[in-house]
Write a structure and sequence with these properties.
The chain starts with 5 loop residues before the first strand and ends with a strand. The chain has five helices and six strands. By secondary structure, the chain is an alpha/beta fold. It is about 35% helix and about 20% strand. It has one domain: Rossmann fold (3-Layer(aba) Sandwich). Helix 1 packs across helix 5 and helix 2 runs parallel beside helix 3. It has a six-stranded parallel β-sheet, with helices on both faces.
Amino acid sequence: MKENCTILWAEDDQDDIDLILEAAKDLRVDHLIDFVRNGEEVLNKLFRSSVNKTLPQLIVLDNNMPVMSGAEALNRIVKHDQLKTIPIAFFTTGKIGSELHRIHHHAQVFLKPSSYSSFLETIKDILELCEQPSGQSSFYTSDAE
């Protein structure tokens, strides 16, 4: 797994943030995960980072967030040449309905699993995206238990 990857992760649920950090620790990854709480914060951070030339190597979005959803943030990200080359993962409960096709076209979709072992495996899969080129999209779920 690539070391020192910078990840911009949008998640509004503190319990999920705590689980993500615990999983990263259990996986012994050395990535910088920068959490923000909604899509608007993602865009603000990305635009500041583009000016400073410090863009993340991976963006992870939840969909159901206050202020601006992950789907809306994704729609805005892919309109910017400098941002649309960053790999994007969509980590969600699956409640994305009609937006799934559009999201799936621009991001790899991962469903939030219910068991910790599946959660750990899903986080590992997401973190491995730091090593992959952008433009690939897939639909993943590790909740086979």
